[in-house]
Amino acid sequence: MNLLKVDTIEQVKEKLHPYFSGMSRTTEEVPLFEAVGRYLAEDLMAPSDIPETDRSVVDGYALKASETFGVSESSPALLELIGEVEMGKAAIHLVEPGKAVYVPTGGMVPGGADSVVMIEYVEKMDEHNLAVYGSVAPGAGIMRKGDDFRKDQVLYRQGHRISNRDVGLLAAMGHAFVTVFSRPVVAIISTGDEVVSIMEEPGPGQVRDINSYSLAALVTSLGGKVGTVALLRDSREDLRNMVQEALRRNHIVLISGGSSAGFKDYTAAVINEMGSPGVLTHGIAMKPGKPTIVGVIKDEHCCCHERASLIVGLPGHPMAAVISFRAVVEDFIRKYYFCNEEEPMTIPARMTENIHGGEGRETFTMVRLRKAEEGWEAEPIHAKSGSISQLRYGDGFLRMPALSEGVTKGQLVEIRLWNEV
Amino acid sequence: MNLLKVDTIEQVKEKLHPYFSGMSRTTEEVPLFEAVGRYLAEDLMAPSDIPETDRSVVDGYALKASETFGVSESSPALLELIGEVEMGKAAIHLVEPGKAVYVPTGGMVPGGADSVVMIEYVEKMDEHNLAVYGSVAPGAGIMRKGDDFRKDQVLYRQGHRISNRDVGLLAAMGHAFVTVFSRPVVAIISTGDEVVSIMEEPGPGQVRDINSYSLAALVTSLGGKVGTVALLRDSREDLRNMVQEALRRNHIVLISGGSSAGFKDYTAAVINEMGSPGVLTHGIAMKPGKPTIVGVIKDEHCCCHERASLIVGLPGHPMAAVISFRAVVEDFIRKYYFCNEEEPMTIPARMTENIHGGEGRETFTMVRLRKAEEGWEAEPIHAKSGSISQLRYGDGFLRMPALSEGVTKGQLVEIRLWNEV
Predict the structure, then answer these.
(1) Which residues of B touch A91 (CB under 8 A)?
(2) Would the pTM of this model clear 0.90, i.e. be above it?
(3) Which of B142, B240, B281, B316 is deepest in the core (most CB within 10 A)?
């Protein structure tokens, strides 16, 4: 038994690092409309002050604030209206004492003015004369040049995942196109004599191929590209041929099933046949997900750049496969292909019951979230190994370190949302 | 002034309801791989019991549990091994007293057996004889037929938004294709003399067209399709022509800018020219977003089915435009096009400072989230009207009802995440 030889998730990361830390990333330019979910390949700085000039934030009259000090309903300030600023045009007037210029919201504030008083406080007596009934402080009604961002201020770091809320600011910065890291291509190979395609009706003892689909959905939403997809019987020969072919056309190869310590464990042997260094880890101290195999194949034919491919044997159980993927593969792809190590989003919730510690294994417990009187509560989903109901009801998961003594009922914990990547 | 004639968001919804409640939704079939982010057009029931037969959840030997009662290291149960179950095949043996059958994890449990004892507790003496050193309870090691789901149990309701975590279960149910509601096509028209395309360098007093992009990103991530996109100068003639054209080719028309009470407010007039009933609401009791215009145009040429188009004039300010979109248009699209009224996800956080109530207006305050010692804290982003830094740093927003007296520092509030739709 190699029960004692399992690695922690952290050890797996350390073992992988030397093979991928020097890897050069490829980039591509995409239209802003298609950039959501991609990862920036460069730091982005403000190209100029934003806004580029002082702008009015109200419909009103630009003037010197001091003219309005002490005015009241009964004693307004009387000013001469010398013109108006047109939207989208430079302000051409100079506001001297006793003068005012009309400025619409968003219009440029003319020289000489230090504030804009809202139209509500002004009576237009005739074409050229205003009575101002409200007083304003210097700066009122004005957004200053550079108030939002200063020229060359870093707005985004390399590796940032572009979300739909970033699109507005990227547009404001003039980025009709952005340079992002290319999507790694990921092969997904399912194995198992009992596994049939999802279009087939499973016979006695058979199950549909869930993993190809659930892993493909995760790869895609993470920003990767699904390459080779194959469903194989348990045959060492077929697996070897398929993995060899997949290595040629994909950056990462995922194999699900066939990695338990049972009869038909060809995965590790096949990975070792592909090249060096081969299998780095045969079993991870995590629950679920222990029978995860991690291997690396260095590309010997590539002289100038170090290149290596990751091969991961994931458990066959649908839930264990996706948990393993998230704990090992997802972080790997984000770090080495996308230069992204942003902390994942978690939400605080109170556990509805006690959870045991993992007895030396890092533990992932799927939970269902419910609104409590204040905040959220998290109910662990108890499911036998192999159950797929967790797939339906798991809103997120609790991650407990290997040496955790568990969590007690009512304790506030951080839940990682299932959908958030 | 029509300050007093504004509607609440709730009133807007009530006004819209009669025009859209009877609208028939169109549907389409999409491959499961492309279903993420779409909305189910039908209830989905389990097509059979899942699992379909009793299955082993361990590698072990199927037997009658009673045979193992009272066994120990020194006095094992001695059983005859009569065969093994092959993965993916029906179990053919009948387990009688004194007999056992090998079953791999996931294999079908043979008739007569009521439990599976793990290989760790069994010594295989020769090809036909086993010594069992551990006792098991009936049901141990077995996942029963229907344990996950019963045949015809409703797993998903019509209107459910398919997320990447649903894909595995849909695959398990055999849905290689799913029927989803069609995407409504949304026109996005930006107006304003000061607005230039994002590819252009803004001159003095000009700004780039942020809204086309930020609204397009929201429409897309919500599951809609961006149709007509146009940037117009402030011209009533141009706007009328463009809206007329857009109504022909889109389900929903969004116009941003031009809806403040300033000089160049053609939007309401143009909506009224398009048909009846025209403008329903000119101003909403919300902050930001007050100058939002909501109109409906009934399609008179369509005799058999009631059809109507929504036209919304959104504020020109980038932040106000997206808040208005989320408060009014997003809920509308989810409800009438996707039959989806799922509660949006929120996370509890403590406010870092006092927030005033909205003085009769429903208030949306953008916040930046930070990890606190326990859970999250939410820092309101103070930004002048027109500021776009909220676009960068707003992780989510706090929604306060019109009559709220505000929120005090340290209070626990529910924050709606910006990216979650």
Answers:
(1) 204-205
(2) yes
(3) B316
